[in-house]
Amino acid sequence: MTQTKISWSEEVWNPVTGCDRISPGCDHCYAMILAARLKLMGSAKYQVDGNPDTSGPGFGLTLHPGSLDEPLRKTKPRVWFVNSMSDLFHHDVPYEFIGSVWATMTACPQHTFQVLTKRPQRMRAVLQEMTAHTEGSAYGGPIWRDHLLRWNESKVWPLPNVWLGTSIENNRYAFRANHLRDTPAAVRFISAEPLLGPLPSLDLTGIDWLILGGESQRGARPLDEGWFRELTAMADDAGTAVFVKQMGSVWASEHGLRGKGEDLAEIPVDLRRRDYPAS
Length: 279
Known about the structure:
Blueprint: E1 2-3, E2 11-13, E3 16-17, H1 30-40, E4 62-63, E5 79-82, H2 95-106, E6 112-117, H3 120-134, H4 148-151, E7 162-167, H5 176-181, E8 187-192, E9 209-213, H6 225-238, E10 241-246, H7 249-254
Parallel strand pairs: 2-5, 5-6, 6-7, 7-8, 8-9, 9-10
Antiparallel strand pairs: 1-2, 3-4
């Protein structure tokens, strides 16, 4: 378990590491850059290389069963970002392993877990199947450990402490919101970070939370403040909470600022919004 600098979470939990780039938002992936450094440092979790066309050194997808119980070690309620160094719904993550992650989250009702994916189609399919297995008098299906029923005797479903989200970086990928909307979840959220263009096709119906952020890695692409303003107006109309994380390093440089424009005092007044969903 690791404390995180992610402003909308408190801890990161990585039962899976490594991934493959699938869309423009992945071009300057911070996790892939960090994985290469961690490999050179000898970190055991980052010794598997990925496909050089879509991944990189130390960033090959790897399961870490020994990390599944990490949240169980903390009794004080915390907000956990699940798989900051991977995507839980990558096609190479076995269905049963995803179920084991869910079993851990079920066993930790004091914590809140935020799961973010660029593969909401698979997330929807897996969660719909999980839902089918929770119906009736007992849990069934191959993904559930035997003791899951004891942990969730109330059979509250979907799990109220698990927030599910998808990343949307430009209008071409606005369709991801449709898959998210069809996914059983207590809280649904969209991370528009890095935001690379306007999202006129985005439908925020049924979306509880919208995170906005500009790009900050080397080679960062520019941000138009107007994109944020259009999205905050859409969110207000839909009743979606808005969290403006950062304006991005290009915006910061253009405004004579250092860093990535994440200091709330530096963000334009009308965009100083860091709200959370009601749940």
